[in-house]
Amino acid sequence: MSTSLSVRSAGVMHWRFVLQLIFTLAVCAFMIVPVLMSVLAGLTENYLVGLSSGLTTRWIAEVWGLYADSIWLSIYLALACLGCTLLLGVPAAYGLLKCRKRWAAIIEELLLMPVAIPGLATALALLLAYGQFHGFRGSWLFILVGHVLFTLPFMIRPVLAVMQAIDVVRLEEAASSLGAGAIQRFFTVILPNCTSGILAGALMVITLSVGEFNITWMLHTPLTKTLPVGLADSYASMRLEIGSAYTLIFLLMILPLLTLIQWFGQWAARRASRSVQ
Amino acid sequence: MKSTFATLPQVAHREPVRIRLRQCARTFAGRQGQHTALHPLDLAVEPGETLVLLGPSGCGKTTTLRIISGLEQPDAGGEVWFGDEQVTHLPIEKRDVGMVFQNYALFPNMNVAANIGYGLKIRGYSAEVIRQRTGEMVDMVHLQGLEQRAIHELSGGQKQRVALARAMAVQPRVLLFDEPLAALDAKLRDRLRIDIGQLLRQLGITAVYVTHDQAEAMALGDRIAVMEKGRIAQLGTPQQIYHQPATAFVADFIGTVNRFAILGRGQGSLQVTGGGLPSDYQGDASLLYCRPEDVRICTDDEPVAVRGRVIQRFFLGQSQRLLVDTGAAEPLQVDSSSRQHWQVGDAISLSVPADALFAITGNQTQPHAGEKAESAAGSST
Ligand SMILES: Nc1ncnc2c1ncn2[C@@H]1O[C@H](COP(=O)(O)OP(=O)(O)OP(=O)(O)O)[C@@H](O)[C@H]1O
Ligand SMILES: [Mg+2]
């Protein structure tokens, strides 16, 4: 009896181990290996020959020479997009929280539209509506509009979720009973208690903005090219090594950016809790 | 203003203020049209008094409290007065009220001391004053040593103490409580109820306290307003509410009542189902009521008594409650000493002192309460 039980539990253990192993291998195979291959390709002298042709940073330098502007533009764009979604998204989340359930549902769905419909369609609509304003159309602000449209729900949703979870309305009522006006309430109670949602939103917005291709590809001009558009260019028109070197640069840019935001969020949360003591 | 605060070490308060509501109604637009949460209501809370709003869920207690606080506006025509000042259109932050909520509503981004000092900080007091005043509040609610704790590190009772201290730190004109103890367990609730009662007496501040717990209402209220379906069913002292309930609804809601349908009148006695009661009641009510603790268990040879059989027995610790079948539709509820040995099926004789019997006269003013009394009368014959 006891032996059969231990055999069975050993069997369960065994199966669990196998499943975990398969999962881990799948993650490696589809997430890590391709990235490593791509990075490696960007560093080899000749990908067709293989690693034996030697390692080089030549491709990286070449990409940097060709696309430095795109890279910087992407970063500026992502930060500007973050700024806009913060300014629009946090108050919007608060508004959604306060307004009636039915309206909130409709507005949220409208906000999700640019995510749900293909980016090409959004971009086309923007071109139809504002394409004739040449100054605007040719500037990076035009792409910014597209990015903000696309990323706004990703800021609103986590912020709204946090607001609902901590019952911001009740907290605000308490603050107002203690004499705090609307602005004071916003900065002393609402904002500091929503940092986790804002941080989650900010990470999404930056990532999505830097990687956004569909809308940007339609809206860009030769002078307003972002990283992914440049990447598509180089894959299409140049050696595989250059495209791969591009990926490498992409990774080098985005990883520190995300780490920085995460760190900044933690710092802000710590500072907020210290400043009120 | 700041200087008086700085030189005010003890927890003294300003002149208490009278709260008056005049014709305050509240209608909500619902999916199926208008929904009246509160019928036009007149209410006065005397300076320094603790008024308890008591009633079942959904009767409009919170709505009334929120109208007083300024979180909710009465429908057009309603007025809210604090003393001689009309505050109907003043937002809550200008009304100078302290509020304690059921789920505490403490700020999670601040520690205990910062929560308590928040109102003072908003009012622009110096760090020194805030520190001193916060210290006094911490002492007052017995939270010494927890000043630097984060909110999530507190127990429910401690949280509610912080909320209490936070509301009182700014010395509001009025203190408002919305079921502050409802989320706590029974033992803690009793403890904190006593503390709050003591504080309110000491401070002499005008307070409105919402609860659906009658024991809490009795213990804390100078007066109690029993609410039913958006109206005040009765307003009076706890004694009045308990011993002279104005409507059947109030009698039922506050504690337990026994009903006797009067079948006939004898010389100094009333005929009821199962026997008689000694009483020279001359009124025209067809129903008389009494509380379970007023029913007396008597010897079998008592001439005028109600006789029945014990059908159920609940041991409550300090007493036991017997359900006695007398032939009426509802069994009589009788409290007796927990040391007496009663068994289900025992024959029992009961009597009620004449002064413990009461009639309910206020039914006419409350149509729905009247319906209830009628159905009760119908069922007990
Ligand atoms: N914002 C609102 N919108 C619509 N209806 C409301 C709103 N607030 C309250 N009501 C309704 O008004 C009535 C009274 O509500 P209120 O909150 O005052 O009850 P309460 O006596 O405090 O009940 P409880 O003991 O459950 O807290 C209820 O029927 C409720 O559904
Ligand atoms: Mg309520």
TrEMBL record, chain B:
One Pfam family hit: ABC_tran
The UniProt record lists the keyword ATP-binding: yes
PANTHER family per UniProt: SPERMIDINE/PUTRESCINE IMPORT ATP-BINDING PROTEIN POTA (PTHR42781), SPERMIDINE_PUTRESCINE IMPORT ATP-BINDING PROTEIN POTA (PTHR42781:SF4)
Alphabetically ordered keywords of this record: ATP-binding, Nucleotide-binding, Transport
ABC transporter domain residues: 19-254
Coiled-coil parts of chain: none
Keyword Lipid metabolism: no
Organism superkingdom: Bacteria
PROSITE patterns in the record: ABC_TRANSPORTER_1, ABC_TRANSPORTER_2
Organism, scientific name: Pokkaliibacter plantistimulans
Protein name, per record: ABC transporter domain-containing protein
InterPro entries, per database record: AAA+_ATPase (IPR003593), ABC_SmlMolc_Importer (IPR050093), ABC_transporter-like_ATP-bd (IPR003439), ABC_transporter-like_CS (IPR017871), Mo/tungstate-bd_C_term_dom (IPR008995), P-loop_NTPase (IPR027417), Transp-assoc_OB_typ2 (IPR013611)
